[in-house]
Design the sequence.
């Protein structure tokens, strides 16, 4: 019976590692979507601000 329990514990450790790896892949995927989006939004805001400043000077 002790061998069976050891097998169960080793599988749970492997499962935990797989779950952590999956969470890492998911968070990496989310970062790959949202980080470029943040740069795009910041760039649009800079362009909009520069247009507003240019129009204010006219």
Sequence:
């Amino acid at each position: 019976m002790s061998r069976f329990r050891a097998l169960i514990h080793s599988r749970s450790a492997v499962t935990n590692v797989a779950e952590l790896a999956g969470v890492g892949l998911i968070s990496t995927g989310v970062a790959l979507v949202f980080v470029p989006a943040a740069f795009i939004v910041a760039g649009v805001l800079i362009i909009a601000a520069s247009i507003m400043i240019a129009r204010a000077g006219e």
In short: The helical segments are 2-56. The radius of gyration is 25 Å. The chain has a mean pLDDT of 76. Residues 2 and 11 are 14 Å apart (CA to CA).
